[in-house]
Write a structure and sequence with these properties.
There is one protein chain. The protein is α/β, with parallel strands linked by helices. It has two domains: 121 residues, Response regulator (Rossmann fold), CATH 3.40.50; 117 residues, LytTr DNA-binding domain (OB fold (Dihydrolipoamide Acetyltransferase, E2P), Beta Barrel). The protein has seven helices and 16 strands. It has a five-stranded parallel β-sheet. The radius of gyration is 18 Å and the shape is globular. It comes from Roseateles puraquae. This is DNA-binding response regulator.
Length: 246
């Protein structure tokens, strides 16, 4: 069984990358491409695709404006070079949010989430933290998160990495992303410091889910997570990581 895919992306190189990744995925078949927002709106309405890769910054209409004008919203994976739109993307029921440049492994993780989604995107509820299983100041053991109408406990050991997004925090775990109504700094104070490390102002990683690290030209460590996410550690975090190595 294959699902019909549309690419909405104004950058030729990004379109080519998505096209190649889709061609390498047997479950996907590409049925159309759009290079601007108005073309994307017309194409989605005409083809009714089962999955859309939607760039956020496009000419004429942004990806967010396209989605808001659709009478019926298909399953979406947003792509962008900027992470400040993550909250809005998930409020619009996106299945995932790919930050450019993304690897094929990260692309495949997003596709697998789309393939395993039990309900259309229009039926998905905004994911958010509803409660914390400890008192303020105590170390967290788990977080209660809400997703697709369910509330379930997420153990801290399952969290792969956390990203700051204004007053929210985006948590990646179980191959999915959840928006937490708590600033990253507040969460950091309640995480196990032997497992979690803040690698820069907007990101914390669970060291158990780090695939590898490699120094760049500035001697800062480029961190590759198991899900394909790449994060650049600042100088302080790079030094701490080197000090931890044997």
């Amino acid at each position: 069984m294959t699902i019909r895919v549309v690419i909405c992306e104004d950058e030729p190189l990004a379109r080519e990358t998505l096209r190649d990744f889709i061609a390498a995925t047997p479950e996907l078949v590409l049925v159309g491409e759009a290079a601007n927002g108005r073309e994307a709106l017309r194409l989605i309405q005409a083809l009714s695709p089962e999955l859309v890769f939607m760039d956020i910054q496009m000419p004429e209409l942004t990806g967010l404006e396209v989605v808001r004008q659709l009478p019926s919203v298909p399953p979406l994976i947003f792509t962008t070079a900027y992470d400040q739109h993550a909250v809005t993307a998930f409020e619009l029921h996106a299945l995932d949010y790919l930050l450019k440049p993304f690897t094929q492994a990260r692309f495949q993780a997003a596709v697998q989430r789309a393939l395993q989604a039990p309900a259309p995107a229009t039926e998905r509820s905004e994911a958010a933290v509803s409660a914390l299983q400890s008192q303020p100041g105590e170390a967290l053991a788990r977080i209660l998160v809400r997703d697709r109408g369910r509330i379930f406990p997420l153990a801290l050991g399952e969290i792969e990495h956390l990203r700051a997004d204004l007053k929210y925090t985006q948590i990646t775990a179980r191959g999915a992303s959840f928006l937490v109504r708590m600033p990253l700094t507040d969460l950091e104070a309640r995480l196990d410091p032997t497992r979690f490390l803040r690698v820069h102002r907007n990101a914390i990683v669970n060291l158990d889910f780090v695939e590898s690290m490699k120094a760049d030209d500035q001697s800062q460590l480029q961190i590759l997570m198991r899900d394909g996410t790449e994060l650049l550690a600042n100088r302080e975090a790079s030094k701490r990581l080197r000090d931890l190595s044997i």
